[in-house]
C-alpha cells in the first residue's frame, strides 16, 4: 500500500506542476499577444526598456490601454468620488463645529476639549492626531494637534510651518 500511495503522490505532483506551468504559460502568452506588434516578445520588451527611458512611459500606456474600460476609473470619475466623500453629510458633520466657531488662545482648555470630543482620531504609530482649525486674534493658521490629552493635561500643537506650541491648564506656551 505504501508504494501505491507514493506512486499516486508522485503522479499528483507531476500533474499539478504540468497544470500550473500551462496556466502560467498561457497568462504570459496572453500578455505578450496583447502588446503592440513591435513589442510582442519578452525580448523586444526588454530591449526596448533597456534602450530608451521614454519607452517605459510608452510601454505603461500600451499596457494600460489593454485594461477593460469597465474596470478602470477615469480621472474625472475619481475626482467625482473624492468630492462626494469630502462634501458628504458625515464629513460636514465633523467639520461644521470647526467652521462655526473660532477659538482664541485665551479660550479655556474645557472649550477646546469639548470641540475635540466630536473630531475623529487618526491613528498613527506614536499616538493619536486630531486635525482642526484654531485661530487667534492675530490670525494664526490652521493647527494640527500632535499629542492631545484630556483636560488638565498638556496638549501639544503644531502649525502648518512646523512651529510647536504647548497648552496646559488653559495657557499656550510657544
Descriptive keywords:
single chain, 174 residues, alpha+beta, six-stranded antiparallel β-sheet
Write the layout of secondary structure elements.
Layout (H helix, E strand, L loop, with lengths): L1 H32 L8 H10 L2 H11 L10 H12 L2 H12 L8 H8 L5 E3 L2 E6 L10 E5 L6 E6 L4 E5 L2 E3 L1
Antiparallel strand pairs: 1-2, 2-3, 3-4, 4-5, 5-6
Helix pairs in contact: 2-3
Overall pLDDT confidence: 64
Weakly predicted, low-confidence segments: 102-106, 120-152
In terms of structural class, how would the helical and strand content be classed?
alpha+beta
The outline comes out as: extended
Termini separation: 82 Å
- Beta-strand share of residues: 15-25%
Order of helices and strands: HHHHHHEEEEEE
